[in-house]
Amino acid sequence: MTGRQWEIFCNFKKTYADKVAEWTSRVPNLQDLQKEAAKIAKTPDYSFETPVVYNRSLDELLPEDDIKLIVIGDNPGKEEQLACNNRYLVGQAGRIADGFFKRNPELGINFRKNVIILNKTPVHSAKTAQLKNMIKLGGADMAALLDESQVWCAKETAKLHAELCEAGMAEGGVIPELWLVGYSELKKKGIFEKYRDELYRYYHEEKQDAWDKVFVFQHFSMNRFTIDLSDYSKKNGCDSLSLKEKISSLGLLHKEEIFN
Q1: Is 182 left (phi over 0), alpha (psi -120 to 50) or beta?
Q2: What gap in Å lies between CA 186 and CA 258, rounded to an integer?
Q3: What is the pLDDT of residue 206?
């Protein structure tokens, strides 16, 4: 990272850590709601350890690490919330993502060194759909927590991305892309509709230039990202395109589907 990019990143992660601590105290019975939602969904028993999860991988990035990509997942799952982890995308989906970049070195991305991994909300649930039951169980306080965390994460993530792009251009550094993965709940009336709307608002009212570096994809879980990319390439005769060009083309297609 350039000097300015490192400063921007450090300011973001400190503010994010403070917000996670604040949200953790906002709903004292949050872990009970998570347990009940998992029970309703008949989720196999697991250890509930961190109701709102800060990504400790952010603290392991160094000034010499170039940030080439910001990946936005849904919310922390069972493995992510374990106290021994407290890291995003370390479960099955994360392993698939890591493997994808390792198999495609032409992309020049180390998933654990060149990527900032964030979520649409840091509130844990075993499966993203369980957030809906947590709202039903927790009422207004739970709904407010999810709404506020989504809006904050969308705004501050877009700001982080835009400022990293600006600093990269000004100082000759890397200009990162932002990938939204897992787009089904970004649609109208989806769990993350508020995230989508705030993200769009911020870019278009504050940082329009960085919007061109935003792409939308299927989630890495269940290998949906790779399957979708393969199907898209076959249907659209993309054999002559590089892998990077195929990914960008698919990401723009889904971006139009979600934001139009």
Answers
A1: left
A2: 7
A3: 86
Across the range 114-140, mean pLDDT stands at: 97
- Indicate whether this model's pTM tops 0.90: yes
- Sheet with 115-119, strands from edge to edge, namely 115-119, 69-73, 177-181, 214-217
Helix locations, 59-129, DSSP H: 92-103
Report whether 160 contacts 52 (CB < 8 A).
no
Alpha-carbon distance 92 to 89, whole Å? 8
The predicted pLDDT at position 34 comes to 97
The residues, any chain, with a CB within 8 Å of residue 95's CB and separated by 6 or more, are none
Give Cβ neighbours of residue 258 (< 8 Å, ≥ 6 apart). Answer: 180, 183, 186, 187, 196, 216
CA count, 13 A, side-chain hemisphere, 104: 15
Give the per-residue pLDDT at 237.
82
